[in-house]
Design goal:
Structural class: alpha+beta
Radius of gyration: 52 Å
Shape: rod-shaped
Strand content: 25-35%
Helix content: 25-40%
Largest sheet: 6 strands, antiparallel
C-alpha cells in the first residue's frame, strides 16, 4: 500500500507493518538467511544473490562501518534496535532505510535477527505523527478526551486530568456527569451526541460549567469536538478538546459591559432615568442586586452637596432575586447609613469597598438587624460599594450584591465597577446640572407667566400653555389677563420669535411693559405702538459695537391686545402681525372678526389700528398663537377650520374646550410654543351701574354727594356713603374747576369693589402733591389717595376719566372724619 503524500493531511500507516515493509533474517554471525520480496523491491537484490552471504559484504559501505558497529552493539545490549542506516542498492546508490531489529531464539539456543526495513522518509513522518499524538496526551495544555459512542470516557490527556483534579486512570470508563453538575452537563452531552449523529464538528463553542469538586466556582470552557471513524466509516466515538477560557471570557464580558454602559447610561438628562439605567446595566452580568443612592441634595438638583454623613435618597434598585426588592430600601425613600457600615465608610472616605465574604465584614453587623437577617436568608454573601464622584463632587454611591451567583466578588470586579461607576457619575452629574437649569427655567416661567388667574367680573377665563421644549418649560409665547379700571379687563396674547430662555426673557420684558402700559389705560392701538418702540430699543441694545453678534438676537414679536368692558359689552382690539381671535356665540357659531392687521412688533414707524366689537353675554373669545394652528404641519385655512370645529361645542366648560382644542390641533410634542386664552364674557346687571350727567355749576359737588349717598343706601352700602361722598365731592369739584365748563359725568359701579368715576372734557392730568402747612388747598387728591384702595385716570377721545375703588369688605373702618378738610364741603 502506498504511503500518503506529504502534507495530504491523512494519517500515514505504520511503515513497519508487515504488509508494507521489507524484511530479512540474519543469523548470529550476520549471514543473510531470509529475504522477502519487499526487500528485493527496496534494494534490488534477488534472494539468490544474498542468501548465505554476510550482510556487511554488500549492504554497507565502508564509510558506514562505524554506524553499523554501533547498531550491532545496541542489538547485543538491548536485544533489539531501531533507527536509520544508509545501505547500498544493487545499483551502487546509497539509500537511507529505517530498521527495526529484534532477536529471535531458535531451537538449540541458536539466535537469529529479524529485520524490518522501510524507507527512512516514511519512518520519520510516522515517528513525527507518533510524537504529535504523544504530545496531545502528555504535554498539550489543551484538554483532550476520547469518548466511546455511549459517551463513556476512553482516554483523557494530562491537561484534562489536571482540570478535573483526577488522574487519567481514575477517569477512564467514567462519564461526564461524574465531574460536572447542573444543566451544564445536559448541554455538553447534547452537543456531543449531535456530533456523533451528524458528523458535523463542534468548533470553539463556549460553555459554562461547574465541577463537582469546586461547585462554587463557575468556569467557562471552549469546546471543539469531532467524530472518530474507522477506515470503513464505522463510528468509533467522539473526541473533544477542552480549553479553560474563564479569564479570557470574563475580560471580554467586562469590556462588553463597559461598552454597554457607555451606550445605555445617560440616554436622557433625567436624573431618575439615568440612575435606573446604571442599575439595569450592572444586573445580571456583574451583580445579582444593585442599588443607586444619591445624596439628597444632589437628588434635588442643588448646587452644593450635603456632608457625606447626611441623608441619601434611593434612586434605583434592580435585582434578579425578586425577594431582594422586599429587603432593600425602595426607590424614592430617604434614609441615612449607620456610620460603621461599609456604605457610610464609602461615603466618608470616597473610596471603593470590597467585601468578598460579607458575613466576615464587621460593618455588616451594623445594618438594620431585620434587613440583615432577611438578606442572609436570601444568601447575600458578597458586596461592592463604589462612590459616585464627578468633577470633584461626591454624588452618592453604587452598591452591588451577589446572592444567586456563588462566587464572591474579586478585585477585577471591583475595577470594573469603578470604571462604569465613573462613567455613570459623569452622566448623573450632567443630569444634576440639567435639573438645576430646568428648575431655573421653571422658576423663570413661573415668574413670567400667570399661574392661577383670579376671578374676574368681566370674564370667565381658562388657558393652555405648551412650550416647544417641555423639558425647559419656557418659550416665547405668552398670555395675560389684566384687570383695568371700571371693571374692564385686558386680554393679551403674544409670540416672541424663537424658543428657549432667550425668547422667554424677551417675552418677560414685553409682558412687563404690557402691564405698565395697561396700568396707564392706553388704548389697544397705543399699547402696540409703545411695544413696537420697545422691541426696536431692545434690538438696538443687542447690536454690538464691533459688528459681531452677541448670542441670539431679537428678530420680532407679534401681539393681540383686547379690552372688554362688561358695562357696555364692547370689546376693543388691535393686533400686531398676530392671527385674529375667534368669537363663539352661545349657540356655537364661530367667526373670525375682520380686524385691521398691523405689522409685527419691531418694524417701527408703521401705525396700528383698533376695532370695536359688541359681544353678547356668554360669548367666547379665543386668543391664540400661531403654534396652535401650525403644530401638525397644516396650512392656515385647514388649521383654522379645525379650531372652529373644536370651539363650536355649546355647553362645554372652558377647561373642556381647552382640552378639545389641544386634542384636535396639537401633537404630543408641539414643534412650536403654544398659548391659548379663552374668555367667556359677562355683563354687569343694570342695577349694578348708576350714571349721571352733572352741569358745570357750583352746586355740582353737592348734587354728586346727594346722588352718591342715595345710591349707596339703595345698594346697602351705607357704611361707605360718607367716605364715598368726600371722594366724589373732590373729584367733581376738580372737574368743575378745570373742565372748561362742559358737563361732568358721574358713574358708580357696584362690583367686587365700589367704583366711582368722574369724567370731564379736560385732558389735564391730575397730579398728587403734598401741600405745605401754609397752603389753603392742594390736599384733595392726597385725601382721595388715602381714602381709597386705588385711584387713577384714563384718557378718551373726549377727555379723561378719574376713577377710584373702595373695598367693599373694608367698610369705613379706619377712616376718620377728623382728617376731612372742611373747605372741601361744597
Amino acid at each position: 500500500m502506498d504511503a500518503p503524500a506529504p502534507g495530504s493531511g491523512e494519517v500515514p500507516e505504520d511503515p513497519f507493518a508487515l504488509h508494507n515493509s521489507a524484511s530479512a533474517v540474519l543469523d548470529d554471525h550476520g549471514r543473510v538467511v531470509g529475504w522477502s520480496e519487499r526487500a528485493q523491491e527496496h534494494l534490488g537484490y534477488p534472494p539468490d544473490e544474498v542468501l548465505g552471504r554476510m550482510a556487511s559484504e554488500f549492504l554497507f559501505d565502508s564509510r558506514d562501518r562505524e554506524a553499523v558497529r554501533d547498531a550491532v552493539a545496541a542489538c547485543e545490549r538491548d536485544r533489539g534496535w531501531s533507527g536509520v542506516l544508509p545501505v547500498l542498492h544493487r545499483s551502487g546508490q546509497r539509500v537511507e532505510l529505517g530498521f527495526r531489529a529484534r532477536a529471535v531464539i531458535r531451537a538449540g539456543s541458536a539466535r537469529e535477527w529479524f529485520l524490518v526495513v522501510a524507507p527512512a522518509e516514511e519512518v520519520l513522518r510516522w515517528e513525527t505523527d507518533r510524537s504529535v499524538l504523544d504530545g496531545l496526551f502528555r504535554r498539550s495544555p489543551i484538554g483532550l478526551s476520547v469518548h466511546a459512542p455511549d459517551l463513556s470516557i476512553l482516554r483523557i490527556n494530562r491537561a484534562l486530568a489536571r482540570f478535573t483534579q483526577l488522574s487519567a486512570a481514575e477517569i477512564r470508563s467514567r462519564r461526564i456527569g461524574d465531574f460536572l453538575i447542573g444543566p451544564d452537563l445536559e448541554t455538553i452531552e447534547t452537543r456531543l451526541r449531535r456530533v456523533l449523529e451528524t458528523g458535523a464538528p463542534l468548533i470553539f463553542t463556549e460553555q459554562r460549567c461547574r465541577l463537582r469538586s469546586d461547585p462554587d466556582r463557575e468556569r467557562v470552557v471552549s469546546v471543539s469536538a469531532f467524530r472518530m471513524e474507522d477506515p470503513s466509516g464505522g463510528i468509533l466515538g467522539v473526541t473533544q478538546l477542552v480549553e479553560d477560557v474563564t479569564d479570557r471570557y470574563r475580560a471580554r464580558q467586562r469590556l462588553a459591559l463597559l461598552n454597554r454602559a457607555s451606550i445605555s447610561i445617560g440616554t436622557t438628562l433625567d436624573l431618575g432615568q439615568t440612575t435606573r439605567e446604571l442599575a439595569d446595566v450592572a444586573v445580571p452580568d456583574l451583580a445579582d442586586a444593585v442599588s443607586v443612592d444619591l445624596l439628597d441634595s444632589v437628588a434635588r438638583g442643588d448646587e452644593t452637596a450635603e456632608e457625606a454623613g447626611g441623608r441619601v435618597r434611593r434612586m434605583a434598585v434592580h435585582s434578579v432575586v425578586p425577594e431582594a426588592l422586599q429587603v432593600m430600601h425602595p426607590a424614592g425613600e430617604i434614609f441615612s447609613f449607620d456610620p460603621r457600615t461599609p456604605h457610610a465608610r464609602c461615603l466618608a472616605e470616597q473610596q471603593p469597598i470590597l467585601e468578598p465574604v460579607l458575613l466576615s465584614s464587621p460593618g455588616w453587623y451594623f445594618q438594620d438587624p431585620e434587613r440583615r437577617r432577611r438578606a442572609i436568608d436570601l444568601d447575600a454573601h458578597s458586596l461592592i460599594v463604589v462612590p459616585l464622584t464627578a468633577r470633584g463632587l461626591l454624588l452618592g454611591l453604587l452598591s452591588l450584591w451577589r446572592a444567586r451567583r456563588p462566587e464572591p466578588f474579586e478585585e477585577d470586579d471591583l475595577t470594573l465597577a469603578e470604571e462604569f461607576a465613573a462613567r455613570a457619575a459623569l452622566c448623573i452629574d450632567n443630569a444634576r446640572r440639567y435639573t438645576q437649569q430646568q428648575q431655573a427655567a421653571l422658576t423663570l416661567q413661573r415668574s413670567l407667566l400667570p399661574q392661577e388667574l383670579p376671578e374676574y367680573s368681566a370674564v370667565e377665563v381658562a388657558h393652555l400653555y405648551l412650550p416647544a421644549n417641555p423639558a425647559t418649560g419656557v418659550g416665547g409665547d405668552w398670555f395675560d389677563v389684566i384687570p383695568l379700571s371700571g371693571a374692564r379687563v385686558a386680554l393679551v396674547v403674544g409670540d416672541v420669535v424663537g424658543h428657549g430662555l432667550h425668547a422667554a426673557a424677551t417675552m418677560g420684558r414685553l409682558r412687563t411693559a404690557v402691564h405698565t402700559l395697561a396700568s396707564l389705560d392706553y388704548a389697544p392701538d397705543e399699547v402696540l405702538s409703545h411695544l413696537d418702540d420697545l422691541v426696536n430699543r431692545l434690538a438696538d441694545e443687542q447690536e454690538p459695537a464691533d459688528g459681531r453678534p452677541r448670542g441670539q438676537q431679537i428678530v420680532g414679536a407679534t401681539c393681540l391686545y383686547a379690552v372688554y368692558d362688561p358695562t357696555s359689552r364692547r370689546c376693543t382690539l388691535a393686533r400686531a402681525g398676530h392671527l385674529p381671535p375667534a368669537v363663539v356665540t352661545s349657540d356655537g357659531t364661530v367667526s373670525l372678526p375682520d380686524l385691521p392687521e398691523g405689522p409685527p412688533l419691531g418694524l417701527g414707524g408703521l401705525p396700528f389700528e383698533s376695532a370695536e366689537l359688541e359681544l353678547a353675554e356668554g360669548s367666547l373669545l379665543a386668543l391664540y398663537t400661531n403654534g396652535l394652528i401650525k403644530a401638525r404641519g397644516l396650512d392656515l385655512d385647514e388649521g383654522l377650520e379645525r379650531l372652529r370645529a373644536a370651539l363650536s361645542r355649546p355647553g362645554s366648560s372652558l377647561e373642556q374646550t381647552c382640552a378639545a382644542v389641544q386634542n384636535a390641533l396639537l401633537p404630543e410634542h408641539p414643534p412650536d410654543d403654544v398659548a391659548l386664552l379663552l374668555a367667556r364674557t359677562r355683563v354687569l346687571a343694570p342695577e349694578q351701574v348708576a350714571s349721571w350727567e352733572l352741569p358745570a355749576e357750583p352746586t355740582a359737588a353737592a348734587r354728586a354727594r346727594h346722588l352718591t349717598e342715595t345710591t349707596l343706601t339703595g345698594w346697602g352700602l351705607e357704611e361707605l356713603a360718607f367716605t364715598a361722598e368726600l371722594v366724589v365731592s373732590e373729584l367733581v369739584t376738580n372737574a368743575y374747576r378745570y373742565g372748561g365748563g362742559a358737563p361732568v359725568t358721574l358713574r358708580l359701579i357696584r362690583d367686587r369693589s365700589l367704583i366711582c368715576e368722574v369724567s370731564d372734557s379736560s385732558s389735564t392730568a391730575p397730579h398728587l402733591r403734598r401741600a405745605r402747612t401754609t397752603d389753603e388747598g392742594g390736599r384733595g387728591l392726597f385725601l382721595v389717595a388715602q381714602l381709597t384702595e386705588r385711584w387713577g385716570a384714563r384718557y378718551t377721545r373726549d377727555g379723561k376719566t378719574v376713577w377710584t375703588e373702595f373695598p367693599l369688605a373694608a367698610a369705613v373702618q379706619g377712616y376718620s372724619a377728623a382728617v376731612v378738610d372742611p373747605a372741601l364741603d361744597g
